[in-house]
């Protein structure tokens, strides 16, 4: 954790700590309070505008600590739209349709103006422009879904705020571990703003965050998660990691949708079937214990996401275990319906207990059997689905087997370059990404710093440099390493050649191109050895750092520098 991250947290925490109670007193006099009814749990007159304090504290913190660009600006504009929609709903009650329109508008701002959406999303047999449209639709759905999921869990004192802090802290430490300081800064600002509010919101609550707070927090977390925070390798991990971190609100929302569909209720019709309600009423745990249990569940799911960075098998096993426990909780507490008990039914095949559901009594089993009788299409449909999935799997496997190497071999490579390029071909086809980073950086360095294979005005490594910056690269090279290359070639003194290299380390880079901050960057540190003393560098061995960007399914060089002349 950097000093600036800690300072940003402290500032927004103190701001929120000061603003929230003042806002509560003012809005309480104005009558902006949480009204009691058959669905509410609280008693007394409690203002519902704590989200106003969260938003103001975050906004001030953002102005103090964030550097503005299109992405940040779009998030601020989208966040303002969401906040105003929620604030109006807290005061006047807004229709679900108008709230949805506001959320769509905010999502479009970050997509169109900020360029924030799923990256590199492709589907087999589907043209790229259609895949791009689908990616936009999924992005909008993701933002709206997470925004409302966070709003739906705002049902007990301190629940939404605490879960949000755990999720954002996980995003922050994961981002720091993978070099995404921008995401960590955003997360810490929001954590501080929410933490200051939580002081007054934990049971017994003196103020609620209201829709203005819950919707704003949900929107910000949805957009931050789209930035990737270290999982930019594929679309699956771009959303896969945040899905795991946000598992509690996501699963609660999905179950609520299914439950209301089964009981013929509207999606926006509130009930007491949520996770926190089941803990509080079905298990009679009370508010504080119920909230702490959900904090623990969120922390465990967050641990899965963080573990995946270095311990993939352990993360996967923990995730499966948590899903099984969650499913058992859903069945035991009748969260969906009294008849929905698939795992308990299967367990009872072994236990054969009278107090557990039996297979013949299972509502799911009876429904399936009844529908299948005399209806071949119910058998054909899953078979056809399985066939389609198999074809896609075969297509993807063939695509990987026939994968083409996108890296070019120089027209006149040195002996070392030939060896490195051979290794590049192998690791690309076997999808060994770490080794690919090493060999791409090594090939560029060997080509750039070798003059023995160059003609006049020729600069090495150009095909490996990031294409949009190639002109700047060439211009700089001519004033730097290649300043005297033509003279050496004319005198036939250009027998300078990199004959070997050693990999020192590879780590996530903080150096990023403007407008491409959401891609992964890597610093590859190498030691290069020449066949003789290099007259340009006045050394026979140098240490260099090559910076790569992971974009368009291959690596390109974005920067390079000599750290030291070793001999």
Strand content: 5-15%
| Uncertain stretches of 5 or more adjacent residues | 230-237
Mean pLDDT: 85
- Radius of gyration using CA atoms only: 29 Å
The rough form would be described as globular
Main sheet record = 4 strands, antiparallel
What's the SSE blueprint?
Elements: H1 3-29, H2 50-65, H3 70-92, H4 96-112, H5 128-152, H6 159-177, H7 181-201, H8 210-226, H9 235-245, H10 247-262, H11 275-282, H12 286-307, H13 312-332, H14 342-351, H15 363-372, H16 377-401, H17 415-429, H18 433-449, H19 470-479, H20 485-490, E1 498-508, E2 520-534, E3 539-551, E4 554-565
Antiparallel strand pairs: 1-2, 2-3, 3-4
Give an overview of the whole structure:
There is one protein chain. The chain has 567 residues and is of the alpha+beta class. The protein has 3 domains: 8-333, no CATH class; 342-390, no CATH class; 415-562, Nuclear Transport Factor 2, Chain: A, CATH 3.10.450. Helix content is 59%, strand content 9%. It has 20 helices and 4 strands. The radius of gyration is 29 Å and the shape is globular. The protein starts with a helix and ends with a strand. 40% of the residues are buried. Mean pLDDT is 85; it is low at 230-237. Mg(2+) binds at residues 151, 211. It holds the Pfam family Glycos_transf_4. Its cofactor is Mg(2+).
